[in-house]
Amino acid sequence: MELKANAFAQAATIALEDIQLQTALRRGTHNAYSARLRAMSEVSDADALRQQARAAKLRALRNLPELLERFEANIVQRGATVLWAEDGEACNRLVVEIARQHAVQRVVKSKSMATEEINLNQALEAAGLSVIETDLGEYIVQLDGDSPSHIVMPIMHKTREQVRDLFAEKLGMAPSDDPEQLTAFARQKLREAFLSAEMGITGANFLIAETGTVAIVTNEGNGRMCSSLPPVHVVIAGIEKVIESVADFATLVQLLARSATGQRLTSYVHLMGGAAGPDDPDGPSHMYVILLDNGRSRIRETEYAEALACIRCGACLNACPVYQKVGGHAYGWVYSGPIGAVITPLLEGIANAAPLPYASSLCGACRTACPVAIDIPGMLLRLRADLVAEGEAAPALSAGIAAWARAMATPLLYELGGAAARLATRAMASANGQVRHLPIPLLGNWTQNRDFPPFAPKSFRQLWRERQCES
């Protein structure tokens, strides 16, 4: 996916003016947020469970090299091949080589953010392979030449009517608004793809070092189909997906389901530990696990290492007032919402995603919703500081902050500025006492959609001095 994070402001403006998108976002985020609250209310001590999950992920990050080696040793014993990819280009090259080695022409994929991150589909298609996404949302996005707008719900930005029209245009389906008919039609098409594919590609929700097991959770069963029907199964997982034990998995998986979809547990939980043996009735003849770094080792050595604890549930997106209004595409890359505003600058370079750390009100709703209590607001603040330190902050913002600092350090300037602001806003006030428009570039944007209250007749400093005189 092409990086367009620096166009956030323009993309957000377009999103805010899209009435159909606003309807879809309002419904989608509200339903997901409410479902999470209901699911978490069933847990007797949700905060204790979150802290237990957080401890498991942070412990895994501290011991990452050792756990990755243990995972590799255990899964190799059961017939899998483990490969290591330093970056996206290396990973794509490995997958193409595997496909050629096994004479693969048709590939089916389950939903994977890591493969979106490295543009795997484009690399496979450039190598002459047919690639079909099998998660229903991802399949719809692929048909439309679109990109996912949510970590868990790829088509949150689309309405049922848009899907109806897409199926009629691309697949020749008789127009229908019935979700069951739309789903059944897509299922028939995907079954054909499953049965003809020579390779299945999946991501991984967790890699369990203790047992050498790949864990995938889905609600559609497509992960199971991709990993068991084709003779070749390739897992692509970021190195941060490794955890220590089955006990840690048991903790994390119940929080993942509750946070992502409001379920106690997803419909399907797949635990895969290697290629099929000679006595196994089904399963892939060949299993490959590609461990993708792509900047993760570098992040692990910084103050932002906590960002790697993310379990990709999407809860922070549903809770974020900014995401609720602009959706995922405005963020300009694979990862959107609050966690995307952290991860994208870290993976792609802060200069290439400079607006994202500012795409937040710092209200803390993301941290409250996160199942592993990642301090997203704190990291966004640190990224803002990094932007200023590297000279990447917006010139108008830097100038404004510098002027404010000068005024705050000079009592006379502060008093004169306050007096001027009081006079100006009172002069511009409308009949209702509010300022309807400020003829200043930055503040003028604020008053396009809201009123600005005039400054109080007296400043706090004046009132305080008067109070001291009276006493």
Automatic annotation (TrEMBL):
Top-level lineage group: Bacteria
Keyword Translocase appears in the UniProt entry: no
Annotated PROSITE patterns: 4FE4S_FER_1, 4FE4S_FER_2
GO molecular function: 4 iron, 4 sulfur cluster binding; metal ion binding
One BP term from GO: lactate metabolic process
Chain segments annotated as coiled-coil in the UniProt record: none
PANTHER family (UniProt xref): LACTATE UTILIZATION PROTEIN B
Name of the featured protein: Iron-sulfur cluster-binding protein
Lineage: Bacteria, Bacillati, Chloroflexota, Candidatus Thermofontia, Candidatus Thermofonsia Clade 1
